[in-house]
Amino acid sequence: NAGVTQTPKFQVLKTGQSMTLQCAQDMNHEYMSWYRQDPGMGLRLIHYSVGAGITDQGEVPNGYNVSRSTTEDFPLRLLSAAPSQTSVYFCASRTMTGPVGELFFGEGSRLTVL
Amino acid sequence: GENVEQHPSTLSVQEGDSAVIKCTYSDSASNYFPWYKQELGKRPQLIIDIRSNVGEKKDQRIAVTLNKTAKHFSLHITETQPEDSAVYFCAAIPRSNDYKLSFGAGTTVTVRA
Description:
The complex is a heterodimer of chains A (114) and B (113). Chain A is mostly beta strands and 114 residues long. Helix content of chain A is 0%, strand content 51%. Chain A has strands at residues 4-7, 10-13, 19-25, 31-38, 42-51, 54-57, 64-66, 76-78, 87-94, 104-105, 109-113. In chain A, the strands form two sheets. In chain A, strands 2, 4, 5, 6, 9, 10 and 11 form a seven-stranded mixed beta sheet that branches. In chain A, strand 5 and strand 6 form a beta hairpin. Chain B is globular and about 45 Å long. In chain B, strand 7 (62-67) and strand 8 form a beta hairpin. Chain B is built from no helices and eleven strands. Classes of the chains: A mainly beta (114), B mainly beta (113). Chain A binds chain B through residues 31, 33, 35, 40-45, 48, 50, 56, 58-59, 90, 99-103, 105-108, and chain B through 1, 4, 6, 9, 32, 34, 36, 42-46, 49, 51, 89, 93, 98-106.
């Protein structure tokens, strides 16, 4: 199993540009999520999904869109990048079978917006 | 939503000493409290977790304690080693929405040789 795979690992954007961060998991997890990590602020939830066709907002959703067309994929879209979106982004997934448990993270995507 | 506060933000310990990180949470109905370790440039990984029906859990050199009355939980690392140097995050999930895991701000632990 590859686990959770994110691409790209690094990206530099100019203000106003758009891009999509890709996330895929091969563990058949129903739950997938996106977090951003900023110094001194921990990991903050952007959006999450509990299955294909179902998404919801987390703590910091503004400026980001998501969709879930398959169980495996959960892309994060930045429609008009802003310097405040400079961050490290982590995709994470877990099973929804049984009580809530371990969240499996991807390797992260470092985004810089100039 | 859940609000998790974590202290200290940085911790330096001599190799072989113990390290303790404390977290408080706001939602008294929260029922799941994991701890994640993130080595430099790596992804966060679960190291231990505890549920609200348990007061303490141990796994080799690490242990977590939970005080539901005071709404705080702590990570204890004994006999620290250089490989324990990392950022540690506590987290909590509210019973009202177990899809929204909230993390503390993190503690950077440095183990001095």
